[in-house]
What we know:
Its main location: membrane. It is a multi-pass membrane protein. The protein is mainly α. It has one domain. It has 9 helices and 2 strands, in the order ααααααααββα. The protein is elongated.
Amino acid sequence: MALALALQTAFAALGQAYLGDVYLMTRVQNGVVAPGADFLDRMKRGLLGDGIMLLVAIAGIWVVKMNFLLFFYSLGSRITFYRVFWWVAVVVVLGCGAAAVGMLPFDCLFGEVMHVVTQCSTEGSVAAIYTRYKVSVVVDCVSDALIICFPISILFNTRISLRQKIILSSIFCLVGFTIAVTIVRGSIFGGVYKELDKIDRKVLDTAWALFWFYIEFMVCKYLL
């Protein structure tokens, strides 16, 4: 949890350093302001900050997931089936984390400015990036749902009343808030992928994505 807190603090610090440039990109693509002479430099800086913050957020979220798994292992490690399922879950959750990182458009975040301008802003490229984004949301939700199985399976094998089992299961299912935030983060209706009628094309709102990544990070960390 100390590592998760350090990563959350790093995310906030990076936001203070780079969000001005990220917001400038958003205002320019929305036609609110005209790009200035230094826009390309600031765009490169904004994309760099965006990429670093996304990596930090994903790392932090998966650190919290592993914290959950380590905690639940100690509750049922003496049960063979439970222990085997736990190792399967660890492999799947780590694989989901690797997939979430792999879905990031590294060439459009850390590539040359001209590549970003000419290749990453086309309709097909934006649609492909959003498809990756949706896949990352799915693997995030799958890993959360898998983690929820552990406390519920433990509770329903204990000798307590059904009412107590339901109450405690409801508390553990608060992880569902994390899933809800993840779904909102990737929702096409939420603002990450929107149509600009004036120029008849779609763009990605990176500020929206960063905001909901941070919300997800905070929710999952404080639930633990």
